[in-house]
What we know:
heterodimer, A: alpha/beta, 5-stranded parallel sheet, 12 helices, 14% strand, globular, disordered C terminus, B: alpha/beta, 9-stranded mixed sheet, 13 helices, 19 strands, 22% strand, binds zinc ion, amino acid binding (chain A), Asp_carbamoyltransf_Asp/Orn-bd (chain A), Aspartate carbamoyltransferase (chain A), transferase (chain A)
Amino acid sequence: MMLKQKDFIDLEGLTDEEIYGILETASSMKDIFTRSVKKVPTLRGKTVVNLFFEPSTRTKSSFDLAAKRLSADVMSISKKASSVVKGETLLDTARTMEVMAADVVVVRHSHPGAAKYLGDNLQAAVLNAGDGPHAHPTQALLDIFTIWDKLGELKGKKILIIGDIAHSRVARSNIWGLLALGAEIRLCGPATLIPMGIEQAGVKVYQDVDEALKGVDAVNILRIQLERQERGLFPSLREYRYLYGINKERQKSLKPEALVMHPGPMNRGVEIESNVADSKQSVITEQVANGVAIRMALLYLLAGKEVKHEALA
Amino acid sequence: MKLLLKNGCPVDSRNELPEKVDILIENNKIVKIAENIDENDTEIINLDGTKVLPGLIDMHVHLREPGYEEKETIKTGCEAAAAGGITTVAAMPNTDPIADNPATIELIKARAQEALVDVVPLGSITKGSSGKELAEIGFLSRSGVKGVTDDGNPVMDSEVMRRAMEYSRPFDLPIISHCEDLNLAAEGVMHEGFYSTKLGLKPIPAAAEEVMIARDIALADLTGARLHIAHLSTARGFELVKAARENGIKVTAEVTPHHLTLTDADLQEYNTAMKVNPPLRSVDDRDTLIKAVKDGQLSVIATDHAPHTYEEKMGTIDSAAFGISGLETALSVLHHYLIRKGNLDWNQIIELMYYNPAEILRLDKEGLKIGSIADLTIFAENESWTVDTDKFKSLGKHSPYNGQELTGTVKLTIKDGKIIYDNRGGQGELIY
Lengths: 313, 432
Ligand SMILES: [Zn+2]
């Protein structure tokens, strides 16, 4: 398995073969978790820089752990996005990292295209850890990995993504990845949170949650941000919970093997009820573990190209 | 001083001329146009069948001086115009200070005296272009402005816009309206549609422009003012203007070369040279606008030349400024993408970039005619060139066409009978 491109920005344009290749690499990474020493020397001598312009403890620790398990040197820089509003500063910061011999720069930024911009301007490989509402490919891959792990091939699987699609990089990356694998994608949420023209991507938009839930293999529940209500995109949390929240009642309409997913952090009692989040159908905690495996796989594929595969064995 | 241009193909929709002519210029005027002129004692240039147009007018240009000289100065902006075959530019008032007072207009006029092309100053509608109180439009008119506009910003308050239209009517000034509902446009950076969704960029709906066009048309109807819609970019916006004109309302509109040639899909590489306001629209919008200019239903093509520094345009789409440098590519872009493909002809270009803007701004322009001021643009249709923003005369080095090969190039620009731009050797020389 090799990646064609220097950077890893999005799942759009990847083939099913490439995606399954990454999932298989992640699978062998996951095996390391069960060892007594959860560490391999694969990326010894390599430097991974986590450049986070937007706070995200979860994604950052996941990348941190992934790099450490591969024995890479890790450096983390967190900066307020406000101090890097100017593109100039963003690039300067990234170049400073590069001077410090970074092999992979993991970047999270609130502006769409920020990761691509750095990738175009840096020698180091750039790994997108979320660029505004545009893309979050590692999150999408861990979602896909989780489904694949539990249910097998994605072709023909019906996946529902529910919630704030308009502002969600997770949704967008999931859509491109799942489409490449031949899955059927349904979207549901308040009409104000469904972005214009999304159907053109080849997905189906549902107005009614109960309709949307019928026969799905997995439901991916997105976090709802309270500021959307302040901006008038929906009237109240109460109404949201009632119309779009996944509760026990709605869970009953799912097939028994269907998966309940959430990229976290959850607003328990809003988009998802606790007894659903903690139910047997929920794979939310496994998603977190799979996230580390996926990120190990990508760091390896980007930084370890010349490293022999046997190093993993 | 005499100059004889031989064997040019004149383009002038309103003066009937033979297919090929010689043009004799003495001092600053055209003194003779005939199929064959023999004249001693004069500099002779053989045009070898290239096009001769009356010097073009761009009624929407941001010269940035005073206040933002790092983006552009009156001198450099006028040099860019000369290189683009444009001999008259209307200067937008969103400078610093805003051109809302006669002193600033006088300053612009003084600086423009040494510039290569004519600068027509425009004044703001409201003090500081803040949309609240009317600027001293009467004084502005006396100091020579040919129109008023808060361009860069809309006049959000409908009552203020109504009063501006009423008040400026006796001065016979057009109200040039930047139509954008700021609440609808919000923090948007590109056209709302499939591509904004795909790219995750904050969207600007077409309706943000259309509701303001509809409002301004209603107000123009109410007040009898002359309304000119700046940088019209949507199909429905055009339909509104068309319907208003059919109903006898005094409204004209302009469209830019980039809105006629590019679409929102062109933002897919996150190239900040595609970030403009109004944003690049859908294919349907673009095609409707092309048809509208082709059918003679839109009045003007203007560049909305909006130069910025390198720092302001680098980085992500969100962080970059809106606006591109348009003067130096306009004519070649129009030729390459529209004229060559039969979507426009040369006579229409002269209507859109000469007669109509002159009429709207009340400039006295008579085209290629004996006695006219000798402002001329010589354009070679068969010569290609590659756009290289590093070579721009403008300080603004951002163009969506950078690196593209365009067919057709400005060979010579003549202002007041003098060659001010000479590109015969491919060097693009400016001559003061
Ligand atoms: Zn403008």
